[in-house]
Amino acid sequence: MEMEAYVLREFGDLAHLVEISTPEPTLTPKQVLVRQCAIAIEPYDVAFCAGQTDGHVLPVIPGSSVAGEIVAVGDAVTGYHIGERVVASRYLKTYGEYVPVNQRELARIPAEMSYAQAVSLAVSGQTAYQMIRHYLQPMPNQKILIHGGMGNVGRIAIQLAQNTGAQVYTTASTANVAKLSKLPDIIAIDYTKTSLAEFGVEFDLILDTIGGQTLKDSLVALKSGGKLVSIVDEPNTQRPDITATQEFLTSSGADLEALLNMIVNGVLMLPPIEVVPMTLANVRVGHELVGSGHYDRKYVLVYE
Known about the structure:
It comes from Periweissella fabalis. The chain is of the alpha/beta class.
């Protein structure tokens, strides 16, 4: 059977992202087929289509998030069945009506949560969860700096760190510092006015979501014995007294499901979402907004 999908024919201009009819995906034994209901535009999607990642053989269906209903299961799938509402992150192939997903990447969507809400957490929320829970693992009273506090990763990471009892710092623009300063138990640094060196605090832990010079400055601001994780660039430091690594999201249904349950149980707050119909024009608008670096919510497209 055929499905509608958006295919990238060339990197660069989004004019090369076009709508086509293509055969529905064929499943491997441990995959399920998800009828797509909601997609989030992620910074990675923007970078991929612009040709700023490692690249891929073209043409290809881009996209890294999927939320929808299982309509078929592979022969070796266990624990999932047709009709279940699920969400996942995966590498490419989500800008289409049907998406194949490995069962280990699947999370069940709680009854209290919409497809749009669930997919808004599939990549950025899951990334924040893994960086805080698996890599940085803050302890009570430790000083942790989370760059980009108004970003989609930063918003969730801040809340996760606060729940551990750590002392949370973040960086943001002047306008966003004013918003963040209204939140309890967080110290916001205006990066347009104060450098980390001028701020003068040594941090136990740092989550870098910016890269470049911000990462370089962060390596200096880390105290002896401290740990830094960047999700953007590979840290380059000669300091033998710190741990600094670049880490990537590893799609995990278990992690994503735990995060979704924290939202519905009121442990974490969901970041703001803009929901629009799934059209090629709206996909292009989403890429422009997310790529601007100043969009302060999650851009989600839904099939109607």
